[in-house]
Amino acid sequence: MLWKRIVLLLVMLALLITPAALADDDKPTIAFLRYRASGTEDITKPGIWDVLQAHELISPAERELLDENLDINGERINVFWLDAASDVTNINAMVEKTLDRGADILLTFSTPVTQITANITKEMDDPPVLLFAIVSAPYSAGIADAPCIKLPHVTGTHMSIPYEQFVALSKVQQPDIQSIGTIVDPAQTQSVYGVSRITEFGEALGLTVEVASIASAADLPQATASLADKGVEMVMIGAGYTESRGIPAVLGVAADYGIPVFGVSPRFIYHGAVVGAGFDDFYGEGVTVGRMIAAYIDGTLDVSTTGISSRVDIGVAVNLDTAEEFGIAVADSILDSAVMVIEDGELNVLSEPPSLPEMSLEERKAEDAAFLAELECTPERIAEEQATLGTARD
Asked: What confidence tens digit (pLDDT) does each residue in 327-359 have?
């Protein structure tokens, strides 16, 4: 009915106020800082919203706006968004703008945004809390030294990419494979880390690992051609942003040589990879950081003594259209383990969509508290991590 539409419009207009005004009241303000919009982020955010809605921090009407990436001045919390538009040089200005707005919680997505935000806020006398998600290399990036050896205002959830299992798929697909290739962008921490893992586990399998270096996406065709000229039988792409987004450019050359391309995320099949295999519990990432947000707002979470969570998960996906184009028969064991498949231009998701289990708010708070208690940085845990770091340095 018309009057219901008018009421809904008035509610939305009341929630959609200018970002500059969001920090002017006493409600906690959350700033979402991201490198770019991504499919993994789209899976992570519902986990956050589900937790915040279950804790009654956002209403259904506010949830609708957040699902559209819109700023809100909510009944209990405020939220605003900033985006670096895939440009690292924009991140500093984005963080400074956020600090000027007086956000209480900085929620960062991706390694580069988290790395730069941590570096800027560590110089502040009273920095806002920094919680991070969708970060694959927090320790090699210098965000922290260990789960509990970190800046006191920083914690989050670390997605542990199962590189060993990813590289092992090369042998599953081609049992007699001798050589694989990969591509590195030296300017990206997560790219360097990923290639080091691919190299380590590939060589452990007795493979020759060839590495081609790039400075920008424009270098990807030449880098792929150089790998093909060295006789690689498969190209395995890690978690670097340049090479992962540039898979179509890699495929354009790999197709001429009939070399399959594997990517270290199930979602790489969207870009044309024959197989994508890697961390796949992005909804769980959202749930973890949502629990941290809810507990912090509730006053029950001490970020300084909360260690970085580590999530380990693997999902496998197959693009049968690309496989057919390349003349490749995907191994049955890989197909049998797939959580999603692209065939005839259609995406078939073979797993149930994730969601929170039904329970009362009291039960949920108790379950969340038990989960967060496992992350506590006790003196014993800190000493153990310091000893491990000391041994590694020696």
From this structure: 999 999 999 999 999 999 999 988 888 899 999
Displacement of CA 23 from its chain's centroid (Å): 27
- Cα 55 from Cα 40, distance rounded (Å): 24
pLDDT value at residue 292: 98
Per-residue pLDDT band at 21 (split at 50, 70, 90) = very low
What whole-number distance in Å separates Cα of residue 59 and Cα of residue 357? 19
Written as one letter, the residue type at 236 is: M
Question: How many whole angstroms separate alpha carbon 322 and alpha carbon 309?
Answer: 36
The full set of domains in the chain, from first to last, is 2-160+281-312 (3.40.50.2300), 163-278+314-349 (3.40.50.2300)
Pairwise CA distance, residues 71 & 83, whole Å: 13
pTM of structure: 0.82
Instruction: Look up residue 104 and give its DSSP letter.
Output: S
- The token duo for 113 is 């945004």
DSSP-derived 3-state class of residue 159: strand
CA distance 127 to 231: 52
Question: What pLDDT is stored for residue 280 in this prediction?
Answer: 87
HSE toward the beta carbon, residue 237, CA cutoff 13 A: 33
CB-based contact 220:250 (threshold 8 Å): yes
